[in-house]
Amino acid sequence: MLPEDNMLPTRTYDAKQVLASIGLTHEKIHVCPNDCILFRKEYASLSQCPKCNESRYIKNKSTPTKVMWYFPVIPRLRRLFCTAENAKHMTWHAEGRIRDEKLRHPADSPQWKKFDDEYEDFAAETRNIRFALATDGMNPHGMQSSTRSTWPENGIEVYYGFRDEYFTLKAMLYGTINDFPAYGNLSGYSIKGQCACPICSKNTDYIRLEHCHKNGKKKDGINARLDLVKMRIRSDLAPVKKGKRTFLPPTACTLSRHEKRAFCEALYSVKVPEGYSSNIKSLVSLKDLKLKGLKSHDCHILMENLIPCAIRSILPKKVHVAITKLCFFFKTICSKVIDPAKLPALQNHISETLCELEMYFLPSFFDIIVHLTIQLVEETKLCGPAYM
Questions:
Q1: What is one Pfam family matched by this protein (predicted)?
Q2: How far is CA 90 from CA 1, 115, 161, 335, 343, in A?
Q3: Per-residue DSSP letters for 37-56?
Q4: How far apart are CA 197 and CA 232, in angstroms?
C-alpha cells in the first residue's frame, strides 16, 4: 500500500524511538493493588506494600499486579514551546484576545485578575502556564507529605521557538474540571448530607426525605409519593389503593407511552451538521423508547437545543415552558461570550425557573445536583465562561 521508498518505521520499537526523540515519552510505575502507594522513590525496591502488605507482583510471577502509565508533562511543554507556531499561540490570552469587558476567556474573569495582582512576578511572564486539573478524583500529593513533587519549585528552562530564546517557565493550578463526586474526592469536602453544597455549606436549606434513598435511578415511584404523604402536600398525587394493587396518579410531567414515542420520534428524525454532535438517530431506541449511549457533549446538545423542540407538543404548556427556560439558562451560561451586566438578570431567571419546576416535579427530583444550578451564575462571574 505504501511506496517502496517510504520512511515509516517497520518495527514498533523504531516507532517508539521516534516518539521518544520528540518528548512524547511515558513511564510505567508499579502500583499497590489497593492503590496505597506508588512503587517509586523510597518504595522502588520494595516487593510488597508497606501499608497493606499486599504483594507487588502476581503470585509466582515477576509481573506487577497493577501498573500506572505516567506521561510526564514537562517534556511535552518543552516540545510545545519549541515549535514557533505553537509557541506563538501560548501567549494568545495576553496578546491576541478581544478585550471588551465581556467574558470570553478565563483571563477576563476576576479570579485571573486577582491572581495577577497578588503574584506580579508570575503575571509579568505571559508565557507562564495556568493549568486546569481534569480528573475523576485523586489526590496529587498522596498523604500531603509533599506539596511540590509534580513541578520544580523554581520553574524549568524552556526554549521559546517563536522568539528563538530560552526562558524560565512556571505554572500554577488555575482550576479543576470534574464532576461533583470527583470534586468531593479531590477537595476532601463531604458532598453528602445536609451540607452537601460547598458554597452554601451550613446555610443550606434542605428537607430530608424519608424514602428518597430507595428510589433507585428514578425520581418518581411509590417511595417518592409516600414522601408527599409524609409532608402533607399535593394530596392529589398520593398513592391510591384498589384492592391489592396500588396506583400512582400521573404528575404534570408524566409521559404516557404514546407521548414517549412522540418524543423519541422527534429526536430520531433530527438531522444536524457534521461535527455538531453524535448522530442523534443512533442515540434513540424506538423499541425501548429510551436514549442510550449519550456522551457529555450529546447531553449539552440535547439540553440546550433539541429538548425544547421535542417536548413542545407533548407536555402541558406550563410544564414545557418551565423546562424550556431551564434549557435556555444552560445555553446562555455555556455561550462563548457572556455580558457580565446581564448575569444578575440571569441569576433571577434561574431562581424563578427552579421555583416553577418545584410546582410540577416531585421533591425527590431536587437533589444536590439540581441545587447547584443556582451557583453557576456566580461561578461564571468569578471564573469565566463555562464552555472552556
A1: DUF4218
A2: 39, 18, 11, 23, 30
A3: -BS-GGGTT-SB-TTT--BS
A4: 27
Question: Among residues 266, 336, 269, which one has the least CA distance to residue 300?
Answer: 336
Range 286-308 average pLDDT: 90
> How confident is the model over 330-385, as pLDDT tens digits?
999 999 999 999 999 999 999 999 999 999 998 888 888 899 999 999 999 998 88
Element (H, E) at 227: helix 222-231
Helices (H) and strands (E) in the chain, counts: 16, 10
Tens-digit pLDDT profile for residues 103-149: 999 999 999 999 999 999 999 999 999 988 877 544 444 444 444 44
DSSP, collapsed to helix, strand or coil, labels residue 134 as strand
CA distance 302 to 26: 38
- Please tell me what DSSP assigns to residue 362: -
Residue corresponding to grid cell 457580565: 340
Decide: 297 and 283 in contact? Cβ < 8 Å: no
DSSP 295-330: -HHHHHHIIIIIHHHHTTTTS-HHHHHHHHHHHHHH
Cell 428524525 -> residue: 269
CB atoms within 10 A of CB 251: 18
What are the C-alpha distances in Å from 319 to residues 248, 250, 258, 366? 19, 14, 18, 16
- Identify the CA nearest to 251 among candidates 262, 263, 239, 241: 239
State the Cα–Cα distance between residues 91 and 105, nearest whole angstrom. 13
Taking each helix axis from N to C terminus, what angle separates 343-360 and 376-383, rounded to the nearest 10 degrees?
A: 160
Distance CA 152, CA 174 (A): 17
